[in-house]
C-alpha cells in the first residue's frame, strides 16, 4: 500500500519527458560505418511546452523522436515518460506509446485504413476501448482537424495536405500528452503549413499537450517556446527562438540558418534602423516597427518596373523547340471519372531556354510534362516539336522521347535497376551503344551530378539517400544526352542542404550549350534564379507569363492561387500592411533591403 | 521495429509479428496489382493454352520471408481473389480456386527452411520451383477430381506451361529473396559479376 | 497510354440501397456461402430450374439491371462455350456410354452432352451468386462481416484478426502501387524502353523491370509502416486485443433472409435427391 502511494506521488512529480545521458547507435551491421546517432543526451520536456527541434539529416533528431515514442531503445542512459521507463520489452511500453503520439513525414507511410473515420479510429481501437469511448474520441479528433465532413471519404482520393490532417487526427484520437511531429511540412507548403502550425499551438494552449516539432525550415519555428538545435548526435543549442537565432554564425557553421525575417531585421538594425528590435522573429514584429516609425511614407512611392532592366526581348526568328497550339487533354477519357486537365493550352519554348511551369496541384502541370515528354498525346490541338507536327502518323514518338529527358517527381519510381551503374546505363543500353561508350556516358553523367564514379557505380540503389537518389535519377537522364531536361518538382521532400546542392546542379546544367530546361514546381521559391521565363498555370491554362521579376509583381494574385513565393517576396508582401508602396518583385534579401531603404528614404 | 530486427535472434516460424502481418498485406497488394494491371501478371506464351502466370509469386515469397502462417494467409487471399475475379468458369469453383492455393506458401516455406543452411540462393530457387509446382499440381488435380477434365487431356495440355511457370518462379524468387536480405542487412555495394570491360557501366 | 488507374475497377459494389445492399454483411455472407457450397454439388435439371426461380427473385430484390450483369458475364460466356465443347468431346465415364460418334479418345454422346450441360449450368449459377455478393456488398462491409463471422475462430488460435489486418493493409497499398507502376512505366518509356516489342525473353526482362522495383518498394514500406503501426499501439503479442468502432446489427429482414436461405437449401437438397 505504502509502495503504491509512493509510486503515484512519484509519477505526479515527473509529468515530463526526461532523458538522462542517452546514447543510441544504429546496428553496425552492413557496410555503413556511422557515428552514434545520439551521444550522451540529457533533456527535459514538460507538459504543455512547444519545442522545435532543428538539425540536418543525420543530426540525430529523427532518432530522438523514435526514442521518446518507445520505438527504439537507448543502449545507455535512461528515458522516462511521466515516470515510465522506456526499455525493450518493458511492461509500460504500450502506456508510453499511448502518451506519445507521433506524426511522420509522409502521410502515405502511416495511414492504414481505407476511409477517414476508420483511420482515425485505428489507434483507439488498438487501445481496446469501449465503442462509445472510441466514437467520442474519433468525433473530437475529427472536429479538431476539421474533418467531420470528410469522415466517409476514401483516403486514396485525398490530397497530401488532407492526408496529413487525417494522420494528425489519428494520433489525437489517442489523446496523447506529447505530440511529436517528424518533419511534417516536407510534403506540404504555403497556406497549409500556416494552418498546421496554428492548430498545433492551439492544441498546446487549450489541452496542455506538449508539441515536439522537428523541422528543417527555420521560418516555421519562431512561435515556439523553445528551440533545440542538434548536430552530430549532440544538443548544440537549447533556448528560446530569440536566444538561438542570436547565434546566427554558429547555426550557419553547422549548415543551419536563421529565418529570412530575422536576417532582414538584423541587417536593417545594423544600418541604423533603431526602431527594429535586435532579434526579429515574425513579419508582424517588423510591421509593428515600421508602423511606429512615422517617417515611412504611406503613399505609393514607386512605379514597379520602370527603373529595373526589363526582360530581354528575344528574337522570334528561330523555330521554337516546343510549340503547343490550342491543346486539350482529358484524363480517364470515356470513364465516369473523366476530367479535363489541359484546356485550349498554348505554349512555346525556344532551344536553350530555361522555363518554369508553376501551378498548384491539379493545375495541369503533370499532364503538360507527360505531353512534352511524348508520353501522352493531346486530345485535340497541335503539338510541334522542332517544327515537326507530332500528330502526323509518320512522326515517331520515340524520337521525341530520345531528345527529352524527364526527372520525375519521386526518385523512387525513376530508379528501377538494382545498382546505380545499371540504372544510369539503362538509356545507353536501350540505344544499344557500344560498352565503352556506355561506360563513358555513365562516368561523365555520374561525375556531372557530383557522385564519384568508382564508389557509386556498384552501389545498390536501395541504399541511397533521398538526395542521392535524385542525383542518380538526373544522371540516368544525362546519360541519354538529351536536348531537353524536364524537372518535375525536383526539390520536393529534400532538406535544405539537399535543396542547395540540387539548386547548384541545375544552375550548372543551365550553362550547358543548347540544353533546354523545363522546371515544374508548385512554388516560386527556387525558380527565380534558375529560369528565364515563368508560366503560371491554373485550371489547365496559362494565366501569367513573364520573367521571374515580372511574375513577382503579381504577388497577391499568386498567393491566391496558393503558389508559395520566394521568402523575400513573401516577406515584402506581408510588410505591405505597413508600407503599401513596397514592391514585391524582389528576388533576394539584398533587393528587399534596397527596396525598403528606398521607400524609407523617400520621406527622409 | 526498424533497427533491432537484425539484432534479435530469428523469430520462430509459427509466430505472428506485426512486421509479418504487414509483409503479407504488402504482398497481397502486389498480388492484386498483378491481377488488375494489364500485361503485368502474365507472360504470353506461344502455345495453345495461352499465358504463363506469375500471380503466385508473391505468395511464394511471403511463405519464404514471413513463415508458414503468413504463407497460408497469402494463399487464402490469392485464392479468394482468383475466385472472385475468375472469368474462367472452373475457377468459380472454390475447391479449384481457393483450396489448392493454401498450400503454395506452406510448401515454399518448408522447402526454403529445409535447404537454407546449404545455400540461400539454392533454397530460394527450389522453393520457388516447388511453390509454383504445388500451384499447378493441386489446381490440375482439383480440376480432375471435380470432373471438369479427364487427366489424359489436361496433363499434356498444361505440362509445358507448368514447367515454364516453375522455372520463372524459381528465377524471380531467387532475385526477390536476395533483395529482401540485401535490404534487411543494409548492404551498400553490389559485387561486380563480370569483368569491367564487359559491363555497360 | 499510361493511365493505369482506369483499369482499376476493383470491387464492383453498386450502391443502390436495395434490400440486399442494406442487409447485414454477416447474414449476407452466410447466405452466399451456404448457397455457393450447396450449388457446387447440385446435378439434376429440375433442381437447377428451382435455382433459376430462386435467383430470379434474388435478382428482383437486388434492383440491379440485368444488362449490367450480362455485360460483366460477356467474357465468361466465350470461355463457357469452349469449355462445353471440350467437356463433351473428352467425356469419358467409367462405363462406355452410347456413342453417337467416336474417334480415339474423342467422342460425342448424349450422356456426355447432358453431363457437360449440367456442369455449365452449375458454373453459371456459381458465377451469378459470387457476382451478386460483390455487386451488393462494399469491400469495407465484406471485410467487417468476415471478421465478425470468423472471430470465434480466434479463440481456437486461428489468427483471424491478423488475416483481416492483412486485408486492410493490402487495400491500402493497392492505389499506392498502381500509382508507382504507372510512374515506373512512364520513367522507362521516357528513357527509351519500348513496351510492346521483343521476343519472349525480352518481354520477361521488361516485366521484371516493373515487378522487381514493386517488390523493393513493398519491402521498404514494410519497415516504415511497422514503426507507424507500433507507434499507434498496434500489437501482435499474446493477450492483446483490439475493439472496433464499427458495429453490425441484425435486422428483422436479415433473420428472414437466413431462414429463407435455409429453407431453400433444404428444398434444393430434397429435389436433388429425388430427381437424381
Mind telling me which CATH architecture of the largest domain in chain A this is?
3-Layer(aba) Sandwich
Principal-axis shape of chain A equals globular
Average pLDDT, all residues of chain A: 84
Spatial order of the strands forming the largest sheet of chain C: 1-2
| Distance linking N and C termini of chain A | 78 Å
Determine the CATH superfamily of the largest domain in chain A: P-loop containing nucleotide triphosphate hydrolases
Please give the domain count of chain C.
2
Largest sheet of chain C: 2 strands, antiparallel
Give the uncertain stretches of chain C in residue-range form. Answer: none
In N-to-C order, the SSE pattern of chain C is HHHHEEHHHHH
How helix-rich are the residues of chain A, as a percent range? 25-40%
- How would you characterize the largest beta sheet of chain A? 6 strands, mixed
Mean pLDDT, all residues of chain C: 83
For the secondary structure, the number of strands of chain A is 20
Helix content of chain C: 55-70%
Kindly report the spatial arrangement of strands forming the biggest sheet of chain A.
6-7-8-3-9-10
Task: Provide a short characterization of the protein structure.
Chain A is an alpha/beta fold. Chain A has three domains: 2-254, P-loop containing nucleotide triphosphate hydrolases (Rossmann fold), CATH 3.40.50; 261-307 and 569-603, no CATH class; 349-381 and 391-546, P-loop containing nucleotide triphosphate hydrolases (Rossmann fold), CATH 3.40.50. Helices cover 36% and strands 20% of the residues of chain A.
Written overview of the protein:
Chain B: Pfam families: ECF_trnsprt. Chain B: The chain crosses the membrane at residues 21-40, 60-84, 96-116, 122-145, 152-181. Chain B: One of its GO terms (molecular function) is transmembrane transporter activity. The complex is a heterotrimer of chains A (604), B (201) and C (276). Chain A is an alpha/beta fold and 604 residues long. Chain A is 36% helix and 20% strand. Chain A has 23 helices and 20 strands. By secondary structure, chain B is mainly α. Chain B has one domain: Orthogonal Bundle (Arp2/3 complex 21 kDa subunit ARPC3). In chain B, strands 1-2 form a two-stranded antiparallel ribbon. With 276 residues, chain C is mainly alpha-helical. In chain C, 70% of the residues lie in helices and 3% in strands. Chain C is built from 9 helices and 2 strands, in the order ααααββααααα. In chain C, strands 1-2 form a two-stranded antiparallel ribbon. In chain C, β1 and β2 (106-109) form a beta hairpin. Chain C is globular, with a radius of gyration of 24 Å. Chains in contact: A-B, A-C, B-C.
